[in-house]
Amino acid sequence: MSGETRTILPGATIGVLGGGQLGRMLAHAGNRLGYRFVTLDPTPDSPCGQTAAQIVASYDNQEAARELASRSDVITYEFENVDAEVAAMLATESYVPQGSTLLYTTQHRLREKRAVEAAGVRVAPYAEIVSLESLREAAASLGLPAVLKTATGGYDGKGQWVLRKDDELEQAWNEASQAGTQLVLEKFIVFEKEISVIAARSPSGEVRTFAPAENIHIHNILHLSIVPARIADSVRSEAEKLAVSIAETLGVVGLIAVELFLTADGQLYVNELAPRPHNSGHYTMEACRTSQFEQHVRAICNLPLGDPGLLTPVVMANILGEHMEPLLAWMAGKDEVAEKLGVEVKVHLYGKAEAKHKRKMGHLNVLAPNVDAALEWISQSNIWRV
Hints:
Oligomer: single chain
CATH architecture of the largest domain: 2-Layer Sandwich
CATH superfamily of the largest domain: ATP-grasp fold, B domain
Order of helices and strands: EHEEHEHHHEHEEHEEEEEHEEHHEHHEEH
Number of strands: 17
Shape: globular
């Protein structure tokens, strides 16, 4: 049923491939608009499954996918490593306005880079790697440092090897080649900041962008998203324009998160795309007139997009497993620091049963008169000192 456009009105059921926290927050936003949700995920009592009906099955289970289709008026996905063949099958048997083409593109770094270049947007110089010899040739051509990445499956720093010297190439090749996927070598971009822009596009072609976030990572996991980003207005404008160009060129329906490197001379390079709600967009939940989750629901259902305008400066901070104990202690006490700084802290926990080290358990949105006050509250908090 690809190629058609439908308007899915409240009261309908939205099917979600994937049952993680993004699906959970999508369901929360959609429930408020009057939509019902059903999710397909292999984990019983998944974060999304706690707020929606759940089909417990693996993502490549076509019988379960067909059950999802039979129970849904429209289907979306909450992470991009959903089986693309299942998504393609669903696109022919049910209504998947995002289609499977964008999923197919963004699941593979080489395809993604070529698509970004086709949108007229700069990516870091790169080369496909098929052998140790080709790795050596690419390293000589691109120069070191460089980053060797698996073409599929990597996230939060997994499937990546930073190469600084020639004598590191062979070991990296030996490890990376065991991944069973294509490899790509990217020139290491010396960046001043990492930023991201989330754009939403509806089937009718309406496009809206959220304010760029300035992102700080620790051990390759997002720690903070700072909004407004501390960047020049010209950079902010360019980042939003290229996100719109990518959304339009790739025919996005729903959200597309565009992660960017900003260099000292003001150049922007696309690092990655994510065709779904994104961790760096969680700040929108209280700080924007319309959250990224409501916007995604509006887009896939072909409703008019909401106003993405920023209401207040905000810093989003991720809560990992090791932060849960101090977070809960903070929640039980009186926060005099917040009162002094004039900030308001909003907690979002994802309902995960076990607080594992480095596992994303939730996030905080620190609403403040300015980002410096929000950052000061975070620095004075005991939550992240573990």
